[in-house]
């Protein structure tokens, strides 16, 4: 599965979570003891706390330990005029998925360690209610990593292949009332425009963009691909593609879809495996 993320398309102004009593970072280290350090080390644990299924994660549960596979990861995004930064990723077990976030210095600790397709064990994180303006997963909560978060890689064999879950909608069902929300579509590519490099004044930067038209049995719609999605889109016309997390927009009176950080694009061959 070819998962692509992008940096430029960031929605809203997310605020980092701060915990005033955090004084030291605690991680599992090479000798299986817990010591203070500047960055986490991913190694096998010497204890096995109770694992909570992702679907059961709640602020009502004091024990918050999960295991799962990373199915999506964004690039680094900035906010507050560049004064802050964050990235997010989604972790899934056999029955559910949840969004995870890391801000500023926490991002520096964990960004390079999180790999799509790798299974991890997570402990000592903060659970907050998800903001559905920016988080379109079905889970009621999301995870914020902290300086005290412990994570380590676990065997991929613990989990069978976990497909990216899709909740498809018909193109004809995409309505103005859905503007600002995300949808998943399964459609045939009917037209692919060339890649353009445009200047986006709002972000004061140049971005790559590409228009793609798709159709299903109910209608047609245009999809705007940004940056890596635009430059790495290798699908040809008449190929069936699954798109996950496309943002619904209204542009000049016409509905269209656009990629965001956590968009996933599966070509026909990959889609047949889902």
Report on this structure.
The protein is mainly beta. The protein folds into two domains: 26-158, OB fold (Dihydrolipoamide Acetyltransferase, E2P) (Beta Barrel), CATH 2.40.50.140; 171-271, Nucleic acid-binding proteins (OB fold (Dihydrolipoamide Acetyltransferase, E2P), Beta Barrel), CATH 2.40.50.140. The protein is built from three helices and 16 strands. The strands form three sheets. Strands 3, 4, 5, 6, 7, 8, 9 and 10 form an eight-stranded mixed β-sheet that branches. The termini are close together. The model is unreliable at 1-9 and 15-39 (pLDDT under 50). One of its GO terms (molecular function) is DNA binding. This is Replication protein A OB domain-containing protein. It comes from Adineta ricciae.
- Largest sheet geometry: 8 strands, mixed
User: In percent, how helical is the residue content?
Assistant: under 10%
**Radius of gyration (Å):** 20 Å
SSE string: EEEEEEHEEEEEEEEHEEH
Structural domain tally: 2
Structure in a nutshell:
Belongs to the replication factor A protein 1 family. With 274 residues, the protein is mainly beta.
